[in-house]
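User: I'm new to structure prediction. If I give you an amino acid sequence, what do you actually give back? Let's try with this one:
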Amino acid sequence: MRFEMAERTYIEAIREGLSEEMTRDSDVYVFGEDVAVGGPFGVTKGLAEQFGENRVVNTPISEGTVVGLAVGAAVLGFRPVVEVMFIDFITLAMDQLVNHGAKLHYMSGGQLRVRLTIRVQGGALGNWGAHHSQSLEAWFLHVPGLKVVAPSNPADAKGLLKAAIRDDNPVLFIEHRGLYWSSGEVPEGDHVVPIGKAA
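Assistant: Good question. You get back a string of structure tokens that encode the predicted 3D arrangement of the chain. For your 199 residues, that looks like this:
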């Protein structure tokens, strides 16, 4: 299948992927701090107006609570997408993600599925301070049951996000903030990049 191509920034490609998946599947919800107003970098800007604040939900500043809620929602059949503003703050939700989200499928003998996507933004770039500047990707590569993706260009950002949301396993989707304003050609329409096949 051939797609028309359009120039998009990395941020726009992620937003487009989220919008398309929320349109395609009413079980896709977005949770996170300030997501209804776009989040810290504007990735989710406009989604609350498009889908309503019952599907693009601002949460308290409590990453552990939000990820725990999302794990439960995922087990019940929803496909939550949680935005954690900076990868540094995923440490506050390690128990929920690593000991529950990543393991429930195995611990239940395959009876439970955790259809969860967690978007985090990382990368040691800029002067963001000690609590906003870590690159913790390697920690998560050692967690059985957790998939980790880190797209390097706008086309893969859109395509991998769509694949992550459709996956029946928890996926940590890592966005490097140094790429946010980079641009490139992105296929329009249902462009999905299988996990493990990105550039």
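You can read the tokens as a compact description of the fold. Here is one thing that stands out. The longest helix spans residues 10-24.
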